[in-house]
Amino acid sequence: MAQAPATPKSQRILRRLYATTLGPRWTYEHCDLQPSEQEALERRVNGRPGPISDPTVVFLLPLVGRHHVNEWHEVEARLADTVASFRRQTSDRWMAVICGQDEPAGIAFDDQIRFLPFTRRVDGNDKWAKLEMLCHHLPKLGVTSGYAMSFDADDLLNRRTVEEMVRRRDPYGYLVTRGLVMDAQSRQLGLCAPQTPFAPGRKPFWKMCGSCAAFRFDLSAEPHRDAEFLGAITAHEHRMFPYLAALAGRPLRPLRQEAAMYIVNHGENFGVRRGRVAFKTRYVGRFPVTDETTLARIQEDFPMVGKIRDDASPAPCAASHDSS
User: Which of 91, 204, 276, 322 could form a disulfide with 163 if both were Cys (CB 3.0 to 4.6 A apart)?
Assistant: First the structure.
């Protein structure tokens, strides 16, 4: 299963305009739509969801197979850091499901952290097939409603992120506009945020990293409908997420903090193979975080940062499922 292509930006603008002015039915019938867009318009037809109560945040993690990497123990170490950032959340209203061919060592699986075996044979990058499986597995977790967030198995979560999501109880979901990028080789941190006249060229986090969007789901009435919607959305690269949510009439709301951290240049990941990492290391150099007060706050929000900086190897050694 390959990644679904992105809809051209000009077509995204037109389809949102059509859905708003001519209606979702007309747009559905007169445009050549991708399955994700069809799913989005169906949700727009059915109206906007009501208030959400007692949400649970579910993190969906596709884990690269051992056969794709050089140093499996390094992949396990990165995943352990990611899981540790979940365990340190100030709210316990979360669950994480890891999907892969090989169950990783060093992870204490329990009711909050679960492993979903992946046995399908897929040529090339199987991340999208794993995400599809994770989304369709959502109704089997015993969670009625909440937010589902695809999360790369080597990124970190701000320890207050779950708390913000469940406290605000947004009816649609959340988008990470502010976040951090760490260059594992230089140990330098860069800020991702919407650009301003004083910071031209700066990018919001959702344009840099796939661990960027939490979508509302409600499985109480028709358990598989939102699972299918999520499966269709996550078949695309992450820059499509805000568009598809808006097309569904469920625009994602920005989180109010640096909600996640993207770690680059830590090994032989898929981004390196596709030539997609060099500009991210340059980005860190262009927008570094140097203020000592800010760095102290980041250390508090991401307690694993100090450990990763100490443990980072100067030579590439690991692989991740990052597709950014």
Answer: 91
pLDDT computed for residue 320 by the predictor: 54
pLDDT in tens, 233-251: 999 999 999 999 999 999 9
pLDDT at position 4: 95
What's the whole-number mean pLDDT along residues 142-165? 97
3-state SS, residue 67: helix
Task: Provide the 10 A C-beta neighbour count for residue 160.
Answer: 20
The interaxial angle of helices 35-45 and 9-21, nearest 10 deg, is 20
Instruction: Confirm if 298 and 85 have CB atoms less than 8 A apart.
Output: no
List, for residues 27-51, the tens digit of each pLDDT value: 999 999 999 999 999 999 987 788 8
Q: What pLDDT is stored for residue 86 in this prediction?
A: 98
Q: Map out the domains of the chain with their CATH numbers.
A: 56-311 (3.90.550.10)
Amino acid letter, residue 118:
F
Q: Identify whether the C-beta of residue 243 lies closer than 8 Å to the C-beta of residue 164.
A: no
Torsion-angle region of residue 23: left (phi > 0), alpha (psi -120 to 50) or beta?
Answer: left
Helices (H), the chain: 9-21, 24-30, 35-45, 72-87, 127-137, 161-168, 223-233, 241-247, 270-273, 278-286, 292-301, 304-311
Which percentage of the chain shows pLDDT scores above 70? 90
- The residue with greater pLDDT, 184 or 300, is 300
Classified as helix, coil or strand, 134 is helix
Instruction: With H, G, I as helix, E, B as strand and everything else as coil, classify residue 156.
Output: strand
pLDDT score of 277: 64
Q: CB under 8 Å to 211, separation ≥6 — which residues?
A: 149, 150, 151, 152, 155, 157, 176, 260, 262
> SS3 for 162-223, per residue?
HHHHHHHCCCCEEECCCEEEEECCCCEEEEECCCECCECCCCCHHHCCCCCEEEEEECCCCH
Q: Which of 97, 260, 292, 63 is nearest to 177 (CA)?
A: 260
